[in-house]
Amino acid sequence: MALVVEILGEHRRPMSNLELRAEVQTRMQRAVTKDTMFYVLQRSKAARNGQIVQVSYGRYALAELEASSTALPT
After folding, report:
1. Model-level pTM?
2. How far is Cα of residue 18 from the mean position of the Cα atoms in its chain?
3. Which of 19, 26, 34, 68 could join 15 via S-S bond, C-beta 3.0 to 4.6 A?
4. H or E stretch covering 16
5. Which of 47, 43, 40 minimizes the C-alpha distance to 25?
6. Using CA atoms, how far apart are residues 17 and 21, in angstroms rounded to an integer?
7. pLDDT for 65
8. E strands within the chain?
9. Exposure string (b/e) for 3-15, b if CB count within 10 Å is 16 or more?
10. What pLDDT, in 10s, does the model give residues 22-66?
11. Spelled out in words, what is the top-level CATH class assigned to the domain 2-70?
């Protein structure tokens, strides 16, 4: 779901699955199941190709943001 990638990009920080689900529901103006969010965050193409990464239990971020926040200074 491109919307999750868009939301993570706008917030530019790791977000919990609950925060993401609430934001998706608000923007879509309809209910989104926990199973749907699980699929998007862990099984979708964006998750499989590494665009969405789990940074801690129940928290997700865009890989590009996570990589930049953990980069060592040179």
Report:
1. 0.81
2. 11
3. 19
4. strand 15-16
5. 40
6. 6
7. 73
8. 15-16, 52-56, 59-62
9. ebeebbeeeeebb
10. 999 999 999 999 999 999 999 999 888 999 999 999 999 999 876
11. mainly alpha
